[in-house]
Amino acid sequence: MSGLLIDAEACVGCGRCVRACASGGIVVTGERPNRCAHVTDSCILCGSCVDACPVGALSIERDKTQTDIDLSSYRDIWVFAQTNSTGAVLPVAFELLGRARELAAQRECRVVAVLGEASDVDDAAANALVAHGADEVLRCQDDRLEANDPSVFAHWICALAREYRPEVILYGATDFGRELAPGIAVRLQTGLTADCTVLEIDEKTGLLHQTRPAFGGNLMATIMCPAHRPQMATVRPGIFCAPEADANRTGKVTDVELDAAVASHVRVVEHIPADSQASIAEAKRLLVLGRGIGSKKNLPVMRRLAELLGAEIGCTRPLVEAGWLEYRHQVGQTGVSVAPELLISLGVSGAIQHLAGISGAQTVVAVNEDADAPIFNAAQYAVVGDCVEVAQRLIAQLEAR
C-alpha cells in the first residue's frame, strides 16, 4: 500500500513539512518532546514534505509499478473506433488513424483499430478503418455494446489489452471517450493524458510525448508515461487531419469475443434527436471572428462574407462571453477543435488555447492590426490591417464576380 511514512523517533516536529505542503496533507501536533508530524486525508504524495524535512524523517512508499515487467513486450498502436447510432465510424477515429500511422512508422509497429458494434452488422465500419490506415481491426459484434455502456466497453478493451499488450491506445475526446478512457486507465493501472493537441515519439526513449494545454491554456505541458503500459491519450476531434480513404488498402479483421459474464447496466428508454445544426468541426471553410471585429454591429458584414465564401462562422471565447454568438461557434481548447481546408481569422489575437483548437487547419489566413499577434505564427497568409475593412473589400470583390 502506498503512502507517506513518518519516522516518529526521527521527527523533531519543526513544522517545515507543513509549510512545504500546498494541499494540507500533513500537520504537526503535540508538545515537545513528543511533538510529531501526522498525515491527513488531503495528502497527494507529491513529496514536497519529504524534500523539506531536515532530518529525513519522512519518506514515501509507493505501490509496486510495472517496472518489473518487460515493457518491450508491448507493441503496436491502437485506436479506439467509436461509432454513431447508425453504426458509422466517427471522423475522429480516422483522424487518429492518420496520426497513428505516422507514429507507428517511427516505432516500426502496426496500427490496430478496436471496433465494438452490434451483432449481425455488415463490414462497412471495419472496411472503412482499414481504408483509413488500420493494419488490423479487432472487432467485437455483440448487442451488449450497442448501448455504449462505458463499463462494458472498458471490460472488453481491458481484456484485449492484457492479451495483446498494445504500447499505445488513443481515444477520441468525445463525451463517450472521455468517460471510457479513465475507466480503462484505472483498471490497467496506467496513465492517461486528456485533450492532447500534439502526439510525438521521442527518438531516444521511444516514449510517447503527449502535449496538452495546462494552467488554463497559459502553457503547454508535455506528459510521458515511462513505467506503465499502455500509454494512453485522448485527442479532441479536429486536431489531426484524417487521411484520404484508400479502397485498395488491405488489412486483417479479427473477430474477438466479449466475456459472457459482463452485463450492461444501461437500458435505453428513448432516443432524443440532437440539435440538427451541423457542427463547425465538420466545416471545410471557416471564418473565425475575434474581438478585433470591434462591435456586434459588424456581425452582418462577417455573415455576408461567410455566405459568399461558403464558410461557417466560428469565434473566440470573448465573443461568446459577450453574448455576440452562441457557444457552438466557439473555436479553441475550451470550445470546438477544427480542421477545415481553409480558415480565415479576422481580429483574433491567437491565445495558446485558441491556437491549439485550430492546429488541424490546412490553410490559415489571418488578419489583425497587431503585426506581432501570435495568430500570425500559425498562418500561411498574414494581413496586417483593420479586419472589418479587409472583410468589406473581400465582399466587394466576391460580389463583383
TrEMBL record:
This is Electron transfer flavoprotein subunit alpha. FAD binds at residues 291, 316-317, 330-334, 347-354, 368. Its cofactor is FAD. The keyword Transferase does not apply. SMART domains: ETF. Coiled coil: none annotated. InterPro entries: 4Fe4S_Fe-S-bd, 4Fe4S_Fe_S_CS, DHS-like_NAD/FAD-binding_dom, ETF_a/b_N, ETF_a/FixB, ETF_alpha_N, ETF_asu_C, Rossmann-like_a/b/a_fold. Pfam families: ETF, ETF_alpha, Fer4_7. Binds 1 FAD per dimer. GO terms for molecular function: electron transfer activity; flavin adenine dinucleotide binding; iron-sulfur cluster binding; metal ion binding. Heterodimer of an alpha and a beta subunit. Belongs to the ETF alpha-subunit/FixB family. Keywords: FAD, Flavoprotein, Iron, Iron-sulfur, Metal-binding. PANTHER family: ELECTRON TRANSFER FLAVOPROTEIN ALPHA, ELECTRON TRANSFER FLAVOPROTEIN SUBUNIT ALPHA, MITOCHONDRIAL. The electron transfer flavoprotein serves as a specific electron acceptor for other dehydrogenases. It transfers the electrons to the main respiratory chain via ETF-ubiquinone oxidoreductase (ETF dehydrogenase). Residues 2-31, 34-63 form the 4Fe-4S ferredoxin-type domain. One of its GO terms (biological process) is fatty acid beta-oxidation using acyl-CoA dehydrogenase. It comes from the Bacteria.
